[in-house]
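FAQ: What does a ligand-bound record look like?

Like this one, built around zinc ion:
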Amino acid sequence: MPIYEFECEECGARFEELVAAGGASACSACGSERTRRLYSSVSPPGRQPRGAKVRSDESRRGDREAARQQRITESRKRRAAGEKP
Ligand SMILES: [Zn+2]
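The answer part, i.e. the structure of the complex:
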């Protein structure tokens, strides 16, 4: 579920809420339901919420490490094949 940023039309407060797509949320400051959803660059609709980027960076690092290990394994195989009489 994406995090949306809302701005309250009553008091102007901005806050972030986890809501279903198309959903609305009451103001966290004054409780007014006259809020509008902002399309912030931090967590635009359809993207994953904050924190997901860190995890995906770690996942990419894991992929690079796996590829490195595979290259090492293949070069060892080639060397072993070349050393055969
Ligand atoms: Zn408010």
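Follow-up question: can I read anything off the structure? Yes, for example: Strands lie at 3-8, 14-18, 35-38.
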